């Protein structure tokens, strides 16, 4: 076992004395093989993982595989090691229970409190955060019975992430695919890090924008910016970990879809505006973490603009793009919704970073403004961030340099206090 986090993660491995105890429940779906990668990531990042597969899950992946990857015996039924009372102890001692994949049958049994195997017994005795990652065919996920069971589990405080869309078994494609193991790992670590059994954004719909828009000059060239989308994606992951229904409007971002998040892909500022305004109509909160281009060409060439023989450069005529944040703040479909903007600022002779940011907050009319100092290109593409959260109705909240996930939770803390 190594003591480092999997490649690409910004999560540090827990110290040996602090190893969180995770129960990985696996129910009987073809996506059970993906849970092997999730288990590897959890164990290699220092978590103490107990795998509890259902009898059906063992038809897809055998107990020796789970044992080899977890480094400990696999609990498979209530009759093994009876003197240790596993059907009670496993759930009582867990810091997190994650079921991945969670089939329609497992969700139904969990929702109705059945305890006919070790996994459902564990779910009944757990008093820690519980996360279900459903995986099934689209028709099964959309069936009223499944949706009712999901609603029951969410009402009781469980996090039930939305399935991903994509290729299912056979030739079928649709919603019902298990999110990628790397994203489920990030979700698990996020939930563990907060240590809160009840998700505080449950029942809320939030919209997050991420990335940078592009305004095309011709079929090849465009005006753009350096936004990577990392902070927006961290916001989406954090909201999902806190139980929210999340719509992520991603502008030219190539990051993997966060687990349980609906992703809408856009390119230009006009597309970003349309997608955000449409999604915001039913949202409790909107966080504009994307970097829309301020200007666009008045005309787009249908052919690639060629170099002139005399060495001269073409003249670009630009026009201003719509101000999406101002429009969101001024014309709210739901007056009680919370609108959050971002300000990438540098100081100059006319004012400091915070002075510019306060003026922008007043001008835009949003409830919160997250201010980044981007002098010298800081923040862009970095896994870390620091900021000051300005409120229209309160004192500024400084957030020390740390992971973008930490800043995301600081922002949601402020939003939650206003909902």
TrEMBL record:
Cofactor: FMN; Mg(2+)
Sequence segments annotated as region (Phosphopantothenoylcysteine decarboxylase): 1-205
Domain DNA/pantothenate metabolism flavoprotein C-terminal, residue spans: 201-416
GO molecular function: FMN binding; metal ion binding; phosphopantothenate--cysteine ligase activity; phosphopantothenoylcysteine decarboxylase activity
Region (Phosphopantothenate--cysteine ligase): 206-419
Cofactor note as given: Binds 1 FMN per subunit.
Binding site for CTP: 294, 304, 322-325, 342, 360, 364
Catalytic activity: (R)-4'-phosphopantothenate + L-cysteine + CTP = N-[(R)-4-phosphopantothenoyl]-L-cysteine + CMP + diphosphate + H(+); N-[(R)-4-phosphopantothenoyl]-L-cysteine + H(+) = (R)-4'-phosphopantetheine + CO2
Record-annotated Flavoprotein domain positions: 21-190
Alphabetized UniProt keyword annotations: Decarboxylase, Flavoprotein, FMN, Ligase, Lyase, Magnesium, Metal-binding, Multifunctional enzyme
GO BP term, pick one: pantothenate catabolic process
Pathway(s) it belongs to: Cofactor biosynthesis; coenzyme A biosynthesis; CoA from (R)-pantothenate: step 3/5; Cofactor biosynthesis; coenzyme A biosynthesis; CoA from (R)-pantothenate: step 2/5
Function: Catalyzes two steps in the biosynthesis of coenzyme A. In the first step cysteine is conjugated to 4'-phosphopantothenate to form 4-phosphopantothenoylcysteine, in the latter compound is decarboxylated to form 4'-phosphopantotheine. Catalyzes two sequential steps in the biosynthesis of coenzyme A. In the first step cysteine is conjugated to 4'-phosphopantothenate to form 4-phosphopantothenoylcysteine. In the second step the latter compound is decarboxylated to form 4'-phosphopantotheine.
Protein family: In the C-terminal section; belongs to the PPC synthetase family. In the N-terminal section; belongs to the HFCD (homo-oligomeric flavin containing Cys decarboxylase) superfamily.
PANTHER family the record matches: HOMO-OLIGOMERIC FLAVIN CONTAINING CYS DECARBOXYLASE FAMILY, PHOSPHOPANTOTHENOYLCYSTEINE DECARBOXYLASE
Name assigned to this protein: Coenzyme A biosynthesis bifunctional protein CoaBC
Native species: Nocardioides guangzhouensis
